[in-house]
Amino acid sequence: MDTLVIEPGIGIGDIKLGMSKYEFEECIEAYTVKYQKKAHDPDYFNYVFRVEYDTLGKIIFIEIPSGMITTEFNCVFSGINVFNIKAEELVETIDRIAEYDRDHPELGYTYFFPEIGLSLWRSSVFKDGDKEEEWFKELCVENQEDELRFLYFESVSITAETRV
């Protein structure tokens, strides 16, 4: 399995902040040629890398989801596979590098590290202690498994804008 390096202020893998749409499309084509599988949608890597552009047409935001991409890549920030470590542990680890915004309106779901322009997101909050709660024990096995996935983040993103 290959490694996709997450570098705040720089890029994720070969997709870099400041790239033009044309440069982005060239990178997507290169990923497609190298990693495309028969089971993949032809636009697979367009779904894997979500980008936003500024008014000059340069990339200012890059996001990757955990689901599809983890079958191809280890997604690594500072030596840590961000989709293979529990959310609470990942936040604590990155917080030692750069503090997260403790006043973020979606705290628990979103952790934004403004000094480095890195965000972590999950659609629901679940903690290890929740496994002992009655509401969790009353769920069927399939629903318990669904809840357990929220122990981990679902996406990571970087932005060109940082705040100190």
UniProtKB/TrEMBL annotation:
Tree of life domain: Bacteria
Protein name: Uncharacterized protein
Provenance organism: Paenibacillus glacialis
